[in-house]
Amino acid sequence: RSSPDVFESRMEKRNEAKKQPVGYSSQGEFIRCMEEKARPIFFAEGLGTKTSKGGFTKDKTLDSILNVEMVKEKSAEEIKQIWNQYFSAKDTVYAVIPAEKFDLIRKRAQKCPSFLYALPRKEGYEFFVGQWSGTELHFTSLINIQTQGETAPSQLVLYHYPELQKEKGIVLMTAEMDSKFLVVHEAQCLANQVQLFYATDRSETYELVETFNHRSSEFKYMSVIAELEQSGLGRELRPGQVSDKS
Question: What does each C-alpha distance from 190 to 30, 32, 115, 126, 184 come to in angstroms?
């Protein structure tokens, strides 16, 4: 009676609470919120990053994602589990690459910095060019390059982090993509092909990369499709982590 406005406000809140669906819990919301805030114990996402044109992060360092000092106390297997668990909940591509395999990929990338990749579509294939820049691998569709040349924007960037390579024997990888052009399982297919062509033990497979870079007149794009189909990567892939196929 003394505060009718307060009384009406409390009644409105009570009525709203009754309308909430079965299973709704403000406590549950609170716990979920706290988990979201507490989760980045090892991760420091968003710190010290700069966004470049096209929405991709410029100079995306490992320190901007991971608390490197904290994980140094962990084993390689523990770091792998932390990395995989964190990114499995995100709509992106990620991997933990053995040091020896990354050494091979990087050595070959220095000699052959670009390659043509085939992405399976409902009808045929769409071709993408991957271009290495240090430990970053930028992808853009072939039609983009044909129409825009050197100004063609990246549609997918794979970031490789060798900071833990010597001490832990692993290289961490994650990605950013333009969701207007690619979805996760398509980006994953391209990422898997990097290991297929750059980390392969088959000389015939890597020879395609060498031919594309150094004897372009001899390069046959159908050979890429043949390798892709033979490997099984041309089939629909489960979204998420990059496979260990090579």
Answer: 39, 34, 11, 11, 10
- Which token pair is 117? 């990749």
Give the least confident one: 56-65, 137-146, 211-220, 231-240: 231-240
Tell me whether residue 64 is in a domain: yes
Give the C-alpha separation, 195 to 246, whole Å.
5
Per the CB < 8 A criterion, the answer to whether 218 and 206 are in contact is no
Render pLDDT for 133-177 as a digit per residue (tens, 0 to 9). Answer: 999 999 999 988 888 887 888 999 999 999 999 999 999 999 999
d(CA 121, CA 93): 19
**CB proximity list for 110: less than 8 A, separation 6 or greater:** 132
Expressed as residue numbers, the domain containing 66 is 60-234
Cβ atoms of 237 and 189 closer than 8 Å? yes
Decide if 28 is inside a domain.
no
**Token pair in block for residue 39:** 């989760």
